[in-house]
Amino acid sequence: MIDPDITPELLQTIDVLETLENLYDTAPTDEIAKILIDAWLKITQTFPQDFQEATQEDAGAEGLRRYIRVKAFFSNPTENPISQADLAQYYENRQEINWEEEEDWEEWDED
């Protein structure tokens, strides 16, 4: 069964995010990069609340697609199997970051 939250518009919006991510990676100037990231942030705010919460540490197009797969798996594991890697990555990105811990800042800064 398909989740009613997963609309064609949502899937197209994830594609737009992916395009912005690719453009950001090749932006010729910092000013253009900032415009692209601002657009990317505004678009991510249009997603349903559960998407925003579940992907706050993995909000890129890949993380959003992973969340769709995980959400489908939990709604019907028999019809929507996922890989152990997807599930592990999903839970890893759901871990709360403690910004007061120096190790968490260093790990975040490396990305």
Give a brief outline of the structure.
The chain is built from six helices and no strands. With 111 residues, the protein is an all-alpha fold. The chain has one domain (8-110).
Describe this structure in words.
This protein has one domain (8-110). The chain is built from 6 helices and no strands. The chain has helices at residues 8-25, 30-44, 49-54, 61-75, 84-94, 102-110. Helix 1 packs antiparallel against helix 2 and helix 1 (8-25) packs antiparallel against helix 4. The longest helix has 18 residues, at 8-25. It is elongated, with a radius of gyration of 16 Å. The relative contact order is 0.12.
N to C succession of SSEs: HHHHHH
> How many structural domains?
1
Main pleated sheet? none
Number of strands: 0
Low-confidence stretches: 104-111
How many helices? The count is 6
Mean pLDDT: 81
Amount of helix: 55-70%
Question: Per the principal axes of the C-alpha atoms, what is the gross shape?
Answer: elongated
Report the portion of residues in β strands. under 5%
CA radius of gyration: 16 Å
Summing up helix and strand content along with how strands pair, one would put the structural category as mainly alpha
Question: What is the rounded distance between the termini?
Answer: 36 Å
